[in-house]
Amino acid sequence: MFTGIVETIGKIKSAAGGSLEITAGFDAVKLGDSVAVNGVCLTVSAMQGGDLSFDIMPVTLQDTVLGALRSGDTVNLERAMPADGRFGGHFVSGHIDETGVVEKINKDDTGFVLQIKISQENKRFLVPKGSIAINGVSLTIQSVQENSFTVSLVEHTRKITTLSGLQNGNKVNIEYDLLIRYLQNLLPAESRPTVLQKFMY
Length: 201
Known about the structure:
Radius of gyration: 17 Å
Strand order of the largest sheet: 1-2-5-4-3-6
CATH topology of the largest domain: Elongation Factor Tu (Ef-tu), domain 3
Number of strands: 12
Order of helices and strands: EEEEEHEEEEEEHEHH
Helix content: 10-25%
Oligomer: single chain
CATH class of the largest domain: Mainly Beta
Largest sheet: 6 strands, antiparallel, barrel
Distance between the termini: 25 Å
Number of domains: 2
Structural class: mainly beta
């Protein structure tokens, strides 16, 4: 389990097929540990110094943006949350629901606003002021459109994550809020909008 609070930015040392090697710089990682790489939960399969290696299943390469990574690219990294740690973000499992596409990047008075296009099917998981993880970063949904949503990035988030390097047309990993997904499955369809609004506000 993760929180969506990025600890550091790693650099891809090599990416070939189902193998990924990242220069991370973590000082407290061991074999078998879980690490969120751009929001994808991966298991450390080898390590040398500050370099971590991961084996990636074909379905993960297909369903996330990890398959497009190349040597020299940067990624958001977060180690699994310790049981006695602070919970600064929201519940993030590291299981990506879909990849979205950056449609617009605008600057407002508080920071940068990203508009991200998603599938119509998954719009039901979007709630204004609800939580969402983009490339492993815990963010708050600002607004919801027909087939997209917006989030604001304060300057601190831009500085400590890779989101500052996003451009129009880039794909991003998206994980919808676990609690919203569970509620969508548990509640009768006709009562979902009312209950979800009360839940968020």
